[in-house]
Amino acid sequence: MEQMTKNIYFASDFHFGYPDEVQSKEREKLVIKWLDDIKPSCKELYLLGDIFDFWFEYKYVAPQGNIRFLAKLTEFVESGIPVNIFCGNHDMWYGKYLEKEIGVSIFDEPIEREYFGKKLYIHHGHALGKYDKGMNFLNGIFTSKILRFLFAFIPVNWAYGFGRAWSRHNRKKHKNPCDSECPDHYYLGDDKEYLILHIKDVLKNNFYDYFVFGHRHVAANKEVAPNSYYVNLGNWIWGSTYAVLSENGMEVLSYKGNDKIVR
Fold first, then answer.
1. Domains (ranges, CATH) in the chain?
2. How distant is the alpha carbon of residue 231 from its chain centre?
């Protein structure tokens, strides 16, 4: 019997917790179903940030909820499938809980990987390069070790109330397209997209076949230089999009319809 070729899967921006418990649980069920479907062909799984709409770990307390999702990740790891989670701008405050309890690997900086002879540059996509000055400023504040130390003294209910309120405020301020199903206008154009500008800077010194990001919520698989592609994983609030890397290259797919997205 011919052995199935194993692929590398990527997804991001589940935003569990947004906008309320009911909708979040429905999204979690869909993500778990997707994980069940890809597991037989999955060699390694990458979740590129904003998995949770807010996350903060206290020394002896971790966030409630999403037990079924975390159990599914545990199932992957115990089956020998590495699971890699990136810090996003909504869930940058991971501690050691998921690493110790589940066995996932957590990253907060861009990493390089090579599969099927293709070089990949992987990150959530926030605060990269010099172009998104607002995000760079906020990232500098929220990644401060002093701020994180002080935030841990805030009672849990107050801290999570603040975190979720900040998320709602930020989404309203920037008119995030995830509140609609017409996101194309959110793409700023090749000469203005911060991630594409960052890619072009990176390519001056190093070549990568694929730059894989989340963050922008607009699914894309776009050639930005000869044989070098910008891949954005979109989001699961409405889009349910992900990427799969196989021997034949990278595709960005919609789980609901399993159709290739051409951007």
1. 7-254 (3.60.21.10)
2. 12
Give the model confidence (pLDDT) of 82-141 as tens digits.
Answer: 999 999 998 988 989 999 999 999 999 999 999 999 999 999 999 998 888 788 777 777
> Helix, strand, coil: what percent of the chain each, to 5?
35, 25, 45
Contact criterion met (CB below 8 Å) for 248 and 258: no
**Following CA atoms 162, 163, 166, 167 in sequence, which dihedral angle do they give, to the nearest 10 degrees?**
-150
Q: Rounded CA gap, 230 and 199, in Å?
A: 8
First to last CA, the chain: 37
Sheet with 228-232, side-by-side order of all strands:
111-115, 118-122, 210-213, 228-232, 220-225
Interhelix angle 21-38/67-78, rounded to 10 degrees, is 20
Helix ranges, 50-177 (H) = 67-78, 97-101, 133-142, 145-151, 156-173
Residue 234 CB coordination number (10 Å): 28
Alpha-helical segments (H) within the chain: 21-38, 67-78, 97-101, 133-142, 145-151, 156-173, 194-203
Kindly report the average pLDDT of the chain as a whole number: 86
Query: 181: closest CA among 128, 133, 138, 219?
Result: 219
Q: Taking the model in full, what pTM does it have?
A: 0.89
Residue 110 near residue 213 (C-beta atoms within 8 A): no
Average pLDDT over residues 45-69: 88
